[in-house]
């Protein structure tokens, strides 16, 4: 994992169980029409040992991201579970930095990486495509309760 501090004033590092309440707060802001993750869901993911990261501006959590491995080498696969950035801090490269940091351990084992993204989230889809993901499927009514469709995207091993 890369710990980076850059000119944009944020750092990327581990997400801790203690961050769960702030993550849940951001989920409600970012995904109000769907089923936002609870603090307990974040605690469970971190407790399970998945690769979860936080973006911080000083000590305040302003973004989070998580990836889980679902198959080991030689045919390693991983899934990106979530990426979220506080709307006040969007368009500063935080989402891209989180995504790249998530991909490091996947690349280290040559994993294929999958994710789902809302079909109406053009900004996220453009970010994923810029980082090598391609659309490989459509999941109808994937997000609940809104019923919004999702694209399944894949990034081949690096």
Automatic annotation (TrEMBL):
What is the protein's given name? Answer: Ribosomal protein S18-alanine N-acetyltransferase
The yes or no answer to whether the keyword Signal is present is no
Which GO terms of the cellular component aspect does the record hold? ribosome
Q: Which GO terms describe its molecular function?
A: protein-N-terminal-alanine acetyltransferase activity
UniProt key word Cell inner membrane = no
Keywords carried by this UniProt record: Acyltransferase, Ribonucleoprotein, Ribosomal protein, Transferase
InterPro entries per UniProt? AcTrfase_RimI/Ard1 (IPR006464), Acyl_CoA_acyltransferase (IPR016181), Bact_Acetyltransf (IPR050832), GNAT_dom (IPR000182)
Domain N-acetyltransferase residues, every copy:
10-158
């Amino acid at each position: 994992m890369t710990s980076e501090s850059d000119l944009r004033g944020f750092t990327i590092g581990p997400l801790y169980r203690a961050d769960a309440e702030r993550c849940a707060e951001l989920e409600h802001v970012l995904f109000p029409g769907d089923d936002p993750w609870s603090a307990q869901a974040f605690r469970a993911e971190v407790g399970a040992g998945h690769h979860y990261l936080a973006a911080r501006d000083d000590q305040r959590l302003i973004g989070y991201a998580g990836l889980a491995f679902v198959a080991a080498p030689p045919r390693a696969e991983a899934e990106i579970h979530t990426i979220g950035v506080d709307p006040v801090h969007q368009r500063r490269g935080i989402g891209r930095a989180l995504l790249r940091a998530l991909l490091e351990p996947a690349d280290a084992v040559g994993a294929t990486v999958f994710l789902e993204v809302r079909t109406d989230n053009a900004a996220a889809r453009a970010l994923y495509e810029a980082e090598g993901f391609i659309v490989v499927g459509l999941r109808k009514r994937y997000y609940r309760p809104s019923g919004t469709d999702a694209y399944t995207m894949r990034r081949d091993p690096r």
